[in-house]
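Q: What would this complex look like in 3D?
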Amino acid sequence: MGLLELQQNLVGHKGRVWNVCWHPSGESIASCGEDKTIRIWTHDKSKWVIKTILTEAHTRTIREVSWSPCGNYIASASFDATVAIWDQKSGQFECNTTLEGHENEVKSVSWSVCGNYLATCSRDKSVWVWGMGVDEYECEDVINAHTQDVKKVKWHPDKLILASASYDDTVKIFDMEQHTNHWICASSLVSHTSTVWSLSFDRTGDRLVTCSDDKTLKIWQEYKPGNEVGIPTPDNEPIWKCVCTLSGYHSRTIYDVDWCKKTGLIVTACGDDIIRVFREEGDSDIHQPTFSLVCSMDNAHTQDVNCSQWNPCIPGLIVSASDDGTVKVWTYSD
Amino acid sequence: MASRFSGALQLTNLDDFIIPSQECIKPVEIQKIKNKVGSKIKVEDDGSYVEMTQDGPLTKLQKVEITLSDCLACSGCITSAESVLVTQQSQEELLKVFQEKIENLQHSKDNVKFIVVSLSIQPILSLAERYKLTAKDAALKLSGFFKSMGADMVLDMSVADDFSLLESAKEFVERYKCSKEGLNNKLPMLACSCPGWVCYAEKTHGNFILPYLSKTKSPQQIMGSLVKYHLASSKGLSPEQVYHITLMPCYDKKLEASREDFYNSLKKTRDVDCVITAIELEQMLTQQEKNLEDFDKGEIEKPFQVPEQLTDVLLGHQGSGSGGYADFIFHYAAKHLFEESDAKLEYKSLKNPDFQEAVLERNGKVILRFAIANGFRNIQNLVQKLKRGKSPYDYVEVMACPMGCLNGGAQIRSQDGMQPRELASKLEIEYHKLPKSDPKQNMLLKHLYDVWLEGENSEKASAFLQTEYHEIEKMNTAISIKW
Amino acid sequence: MLSFIRKLAINDKIRDGLLPNRAMENAEDILKVKNQKELISKDETELKESIYDLLRTIKDPEKPQTLEQLDVVYEDCINIQEATPGGITVIRVEFNPTVPHCSLATLIGLCIRVKLERHLLAIFKLDIYIKQGAHSTEQEINKQINDKERIAAAMENPNLRELVEKCIKEEE
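A: Here is my prediction, written as structure tokens for the whole assembly.
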């Protein structure tokens, strides 16, 4: 069994904190929430301190914040239907671009690994892909594949593939058609019985984990055409199969899940105020993997945990955000 | 289930696949009768509701019917479910109308409708491809099909296409001149024959973008005016005695036909009564277990024909399969504004093949910049650039469907697994094989300007060839907010 | 002791007000709160009564009567469910909308949630459901009124917020 220790409690936000994101260097944290601000925290000697507070870009809750892969930009998605892009060209973080077009609340924003594309999604059921035009971001495509709100978008760790999680209980995978630059739905992952709130790819991108309002976690494996196990691939397209369901562990909606690219551990943020860590069994068969719960931190927060993310560089370091208005940094050890 | 509406319409919540009872908030007018005792409502076995008064008869309660124009006005939901589109625009309605006519004829009733069907070129090409016929044969057999159902006349729409092109071009030249004189800069002018685009503009960008839209009616609606107000009177009929059906490549055209602007409240008649699409026609044929080829060739009539000008059965235009607006207006403007009679028109694809640009240069300077923008993503970028004042164009042919109308939402999908783009390209090749009409040389147009419209810039011309747009406010009353 | 607990409980509420500046510096405090929660959740009947007191005065969005008068809520509509592993009380409220109209049913759900989350002096998780069989699209409505993201976004809409505030306002 592992142990989760609280390193520090970061206070400052007023109202619920919806999301936290590690800087790609692992050395700073951006958080956002109901108070319409983005707070950037950095490590100073051995403590986390507030470095900047970004305000005035949004008129409603900021739902998700994301650092670009190069670490020089921040994208923030808001209920005011816009996405703000912040850069430090002037020395300070400033919002110099706003992406408009969604009909209502934007729920998620994600940078592609190459840094050339952004994906956003909204309650208007669409997923938008944005790319750099001549001197500003332009809409590359609008994807209308989901039948309900889209809660989360995440890019594949190394290919130009996009995954989205939705209120319609499905996850969809998209890739770009070469000569038309249209983004089309390559796969639909159907198994959850309620809203899928979040997803995370594993290190290779061949697997992903999804979390849902149905209180389960599901592990999915990609099977390419001609795979050795003989899984049929209609239309000669890869398909994703649910190879493991973790149920009975969470007692309320699971709002976030993150699969550590370094250690392979999975951390979840749940509506029962508990942060849980799962580990894949060593002798696990890739087509029928088994995971076990190695740590469960009761009352990690005093209210729903909305987000939990592994540090991209330092193994075992987790940051979490909650309805209780705090951001907490934890260390996990076996 | 694939939507037959364009992507632009889907995005603005105009296609929600939600049943009316969940989201629809149309206020219903209830006739209140003073009762001493309240009435009871019972559900019959067939699902209908009857109201029982104490000692009176059972009165069957009418189901609230939502018409497409209610939906358009509300900016709430629209669904492709039959139950909502049923009142005016489905195959059932069409069959009912034909049925009624046959019955009325049999019983020598007075109010027999004169049924006119107008065929647009894109669905003809779509059906031709589906049933392996030439475009011309497909059109003639369609005529045979409709005539066998009870239609009185089957027409092609080339005269309406020409009107729309010519009026748009004239409008552009006027606007260009005004903007150069510093008055009222409303460039770029944006095409408006695509109702998906128009609905999106009205609902999302309202008063900002509407002034840029061209005021010329789309070919469907010009045809509506022609049939109801010229053809009808030439046959001694009043507009409401004519039932006008159009064959179109998408469902968005159904919304266009339902607009209040195209409804004559005095005569209680629409310019276009029913829009049927290529896919629906295929369904009708399949239901009757027939192939289009089985029908005899009918006639595509040319009621407006002038004796000096013989026309082919089917005509196309230079340029895109969506009507060739950018092409025609480019050449017209080059001639009328810059005296270039043989301007070279070459398109260059920008970001993606659905966004193309063409320029007119003189002495190394660009004097006209035109574009064709198809598909929602390109519309989105166009509108955003416009909002920031960064649009370099003078005219943009805007269509909601990628690849334009040949790839409309209700065009028939390939039977052999061809991708929609490939199929649309194939249809485009067939389209360009058709003899081309030149609106400028069209004697018929001149004739109609004289005989029907009393001049080119007359009030009648304005009334019949132009239209308006209305910003649609989102319903903001708390109860109607969708959250 | 009880008043101290209540004070802490109030301070933990963040629904739409501002969190007062209260720093929880270490794990010790977490343990303290947990103990206090156990005290509160023990008195179930008292809890149900407090909840019902808050529900019955909520006004219907359309009619001038309260939810109690319209039988939309009733004493039996509140249930205390199994607590979370961390010991948090789970409350389940059921309601019976009078009209099959969806917008109104979801609005009532919204009012119930906001009223309880704002005024109930306890730490709890809340699930709201339409009485089974009372509505043709109850599944869709239940999903919507239990999705906290949808609720949060709805309350940021000024017109909607105004209506909800009007419905849940306690008459002096």
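A: To summarize the key features: Residues 2-168 of chain C form a domain with the GMP Synthetase; Chain A, domain 3 fold (CATH 3.30.300.130). Residues 1-26 of chain C have pLDDT under 50 and may be disordered.
Q: Very helpful, thank you.
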